[in-house]
Each structure stands twice: as structure tokens, then as C-alpha cells.
């Protein structure tokens, strides 16, 4: 981070210039040598560390998930990019939309409103079931999506029976629109029992999309859906 | 704070983050023990859903993290978005903070490093791992050196803030404003010899802190 210098002198030369000129040469050199690292460190400090830009005020409700925050710009851009990629790479999923809808429909249960005070951590207002999809998915694989009251808590995903991750594999959780739109909600790994429970921000209204989808992904740097879905379910009753 | 002895009691080195041995990270704190206790207390409170603790953490570290993000992203609005993502993760993952692996500041910076790289590289955010504590939440250690250097720079600048103001001001004018000793003397009206002696005094204290942190 050494980026800024106002002259060509070395840190040692600057130290030498600072110390008492009346000292004997050897003593003067020793003191300059002693101060040199501090000068070098000060020279390397970037402007942002000297005087920081003022951070925005904490949006407590958005950070804690007590309200559904506006989707961050970054995520919105990501969504657009993924939408294009999805159509390009996986048109068969879009074409098969009707079949998918019929299949996942069986996995949906009625929304559940928990009584007041039953949980101070997470109070779901809807509980949606995800069912296994694809040939490589263990028969017992399933998932639940808990959606809290709007304006209170984020979303919770609870999966079980999935194949434990190998190497750099991981699972990714998506919102899938009926026209193939994709929004990544987050990614996770499972334990050796194939289970995981994660709480994730919900930056968009899931009702605007048709399905929740869990895919298996590889750490290959590609942000696109792999096309290998393992769980899927409707986003609303 | 008027002398080295008092500075030593106020500033202590933070534990070095695993995997970054050799990088000196200066952290303002009462003592290392106090720092760890304080970090653990704060992390535990946040993981327990204490919003006041989250506000406390934001008050302490949003400044340096935002400064780091602003520098890396080179765009304020993007830095603001990433900062919010960072503190969403702090809120959600505080139970994974391990004081044995580093300070809370290091942990939050590690998250900021990963999330900012996600945006810069347009990559899928790192997976949520049941056993990941956040310190290793970065692909192949990418960006760690830059992050550690910035954190060290930030903390060193705070050491300057802790010096007697007449010494700190001169060092800021010299190393932040890039003024020569002569220009500093002219602007402040302080004789050149006094400018030099005050700078030497401040540098000597900083040097003592550097040695103490090794």
C-alpha cells in the first residue's frame, strides 16, 4: 500500500534530517535508524485510513431482517445477469415450466402462523416444503422454507437428506421465476448427515417468483445456475 | 495521554489472524486480555439478538470497514451496499466468531474482504458452511494481504491520534497532507526546530509501540 510520497528521500534520510544535528554522527545514525520504520509505516498509510469517509447510518431494521430492505444494487445487477445466463444455458428448464409446476405442487403445505411468543428468534408466517428433484438426489431429501412476517425476520431454509458436499461442491438457494428469472438468495454446505439450517436475507418478494430452488454447484467461479437442481417448491400456497 | 508509558497502557497489539503470521496488526485496546474479553462479550451479545450490541459494533468498526471498502470499491454507493451486507453477516454469524483466531475487528474485516471480492469478481458469494468461522471465508486467501495492510494502516493512524495533539497534528500534516517541515513551520507558526523535535518525539513513541507489538 505504499502509494504516496512527496519527495524522493528514503525514510532513513528523512529520519536523519529530523534528528538533532548536534549529535555525533554514529549516535545520529542510530537514532535515525530507530525512527526509520515508523516513518516508513506513516508513509504507507492511505488517505482513507488517515481520515475515513463517513459511513452511512446503521439501518438496524434492514441489517437484522426486521424489514425487507430494498434489494442492494449489487444483487439487482446480479439478478439481471443471471436471468440472461439462465435463458442462455438452461432453456429446457423454462420450457419444462408446466411440468415442474405440477411436480412441485405436491410439496406445498398450507402456511402456518405461529402463536405469539412461541419463538423470540424466528416467527414464521409461512412454511413451504421443498421436494427432491433430479436423478442424483437421495430419496429422503427434503427441505422447508420458513418465511417470517413481512417486516419482522428474514427467511430460514432447513434442508435434510441431501448428499454431503464433496470437495468444493456447495448448494445454492434460488428464487426461480416462471419465466426463468433467477435470484440467488445464498449458498451453503451441509453436514455429514446432509442437513443444514441457514437464515438468509430476503431482498425481494418471493411471491413475485414461482419457485424456491436448491441447486448443487461447483466452485468454478461461475455465478450461473449449474442446471442441477436438487430441491424445489412453490413460493406461496 | 502525554507519554510513552501511558500509550503502552492504552494500545496493545491484537492477536495475529491465523494464516497471516508476520503481519503486524496494531489495534487500539486496553490490553490484549481486555480486548479478547470485550470482543467475546460483544459477539455473544450480538449472536443473542442484542441490537444494542450490533449498534456498538457498527459504531466501532463501520468507519474502518467503510474506509477499506471505499478504497477497494472506488464507489461510495457500492461500498455502502457491501457494508450493509457485511453487518448482516455479523448479525447472523456472530456465534461463529472465535476469539482464539483473531480479533472481532479482524473477523469483520475478513467478511468485508470476501464480500467486496464477491462484488468485484461478480462471483457467487461464499457458501454458508456449518463449520466455517468466517476467518477463512475467502477463496485462496485472495485480498487478505491488502485487507491486513489496510487494517494495520488504520490502526497505526489511530496510534497517531493517541499522541499529544501537537505531535499528532504535525505528523498528519507531514504524512497525510504531504507538507515539508518548512511548510509545516510556516503554516503553523511553530519554529522549524520545534517542528522537528515534536515529530521526533511522536515518532519515538510510535516506534516504541511497534517494538512492543512484536
Notes on the protein architecture:
The complex is a heterodimer of chains A (about 240) and B (about 210). With about 240 residues, chain A is α+β, with helices and mostly antiparallel strands. Chain A has helices at about 10-20, 25-45, 45-50, 60-65, 75-90, 90-95, 95-105, and strands at about 125-130, 140-150, 155-160, 170-175, 180-190, 195-200, 210-220, 230-235. Chain A folds into two domains: about 10-50, no CATH class; about 70-235, Sandwich (Immunoglobulin-like), CATH 2.60.40. Chain A has an eight-stranded antiparallel sheet. In chain A, α1 (about 10-20) packs across α2 (about 25-45). Chain A starts with 10 loop residues before the first helix and ends with a strand. With about 210 residues, chain B is mainly alpha-helical. Chain B contains nine helices and two strands. In chain B, α4 (about 75-95) packs across α5 (about 105-120), α5 (about 105-120) crosses α6 (about 145-160) and α7 crosses α9 (about 190-210). Chain B is elongated. The two termini of chain B are about 20 Å apart. Mean pLDDT of chain B is about 80; it is low at about 1-35. Chains A and B meet through α1, α2, α3, α4 and α5 of A and α3, α4, α6, α7 and α9 of B.
Give structural attributes.
heterodimer; A: 237 residues; Immunoglobulin-like; 7 helices; elongated; B: 214 residues; mainly alpha; Rna Polymerase Sigma Factor, Chain: A; Arc Repressor Mutant, subunit A; 2 domains; 9 helices; disordered N terminus
Helix content of chain B: 55-70%
Task: Examine the coordinates and then state which fold CATH places here, giving the name of the CATH topology of the largest domain in chain B.
Answer: Rna Polymerase Sigma Factor, Chain: A
Q: What portion of residues of chain A is helical?
A: 25-40%
Mean pLDDT of chain B: 78
The helix-and-strand class of chain B reads mainly alpha
Count, helices of chain A: 7
Q: Find the biggest chain interface.
A: A-B, 66 and 65 residues
What number of domains of chain A?
Answer: 2
CATH class of the largest domain in chain A: Mainly Beta
Radius of gyration of chain A: 27 Å
End-to-end CA span of chain A: 54 Å
Beta-strand share of residues of chain A: 15-25%
Order of helices and strands of chain A: HHHHHHHEEEEEEEE
User: What is the approximate shape of chain B?
Assistant: elongated
